[in-house]
Structure prediction request, 267 residues.
Amino acid sequence: MLIRNWSAPLNKLTQTPLPLMQASRSPVSLSEKSILVTGGASGLGAALCAQLSANGARIMLADLHEENAQRTATALLENGRHVDVVICDVGDPKQAEHAVRETIEKLGGIDILINNAGTDVSGSLNEIETAQWERVLRTNLHGPFLMARAAARYMMGQGSGHIVNVTSTAAKRAWPNACAYHASKSGLLGLSHALHAELRPAGIKVTAVILGGMATPFMLNRFPQLDPSSLQEPANVALAICQLLQLPLESVVPEITILPMRETSWP
Prediction:
């Protein structure tokens, strides 16, 4: 049997300095970018508005709850941020179109859309009502479709843009009594990949952000048995998404998963 001695070539390789790899493009600056964030009044949406505006972006905060939206916007404005508010039910076609139009008119365009608004209803298959099922699908799946369609029409004209769809590990795993939520988040992941394939030739990036548990009322109210310390802070997720948006123009991330370190259920 022939035995080769690879130690010499390997030693030689380790002693040879390799050229430093440099990015061929600079990171995208968020300064003066026009960004529409749905569900921006609380939780991850509020954290995103804070993080993105801190990086110099102009924010259109879209939310269904006017009082919460105005409170969040006021806090950012007091810190010198550029924030406007539009009250919007993302599942309503006219309101979705209006939100995008308001963004373009007030911010001078729309560079980034973050589909973050979401809702849920707990109940077994026998308990969940048709109206509840439709409300979850309308907000979590139909809404991002409407928002993306309206935003993409403008983005295609300028030859650039980025659409971020906030989905969940619920798109890839399941637990009982949440069939509407799982269906909507699985559908949103599929929609996101379809839009990535369709809009990529037009210079528009589309990214699905798959999230593990966050320490937000949305999560803790649904699962009161959870230990909040095992969940991730919305600010951490907002920072990751902010960094994703700054990736050089020549690259795109179609899907990214962001998990808390202590979450044991995934994977």
